[in-house]
Amino acid sequence: MITELANLKQELISISQSTNLGFNITPATKEQIETLAASLEPLNPTAEPTNHIELIQGRWRLLYSTFNLEQETTLQRLSFGKLPDVKVNVTGIFQEIYLDGQQYINLIEFTGVSGVQGVGLVRGRYTVEDEKRLNIEFVETSVKSANNDLSDAAFREALGVDNDSPLEATLSFSGWSDITYLDENFRLMRGNQQNLYVLLRDE
User: Fold this and answer.
1) pTM of the predicted model, to two decimals?
2) Residue 32 phi, psi dihedral angles, 5° rounding
């Protein structure tokens, strides 16, 4: 069983990485990922994931999802309609979960048309509903330069955003995520819209 689990996990990681966050997915590869995930979930070594939040805590890199995010998109879409309608290209997606303050943060790295690198953040707070489900209340979205090396004015200019356009805004909506597989460095989640997420711990 241990060998089967390790093989399934490695195959799922490899195929997920090849999809470029799911942007380059084909129907056949999508079906393959779904089959592998469904085979791996019954072998979950952490029977009650939310009772082991210490395993979930930290920074995770998204390898693949069925969230239907587009690689060429806008800040407006990344922020649920709150931030300016500026074109960006998504280069990486991460998730951070912390016991302190029950923080649940989605981070989307992007490059603007000018080449400027930025990060979009969607902040929330989680509560535990049962042995595998986290309820998330999203409270804020914002965008900043990737290395915090630009002033507000310089970052706005690079993005092509004027001083009157917001770079942060409040949010007020909720969702949930079921953690269906969890070990020290790998996690599967299924969200409230039946989306599958494949994540690898980011060191």
Assistant:
1) 0.94
2) -65, -45
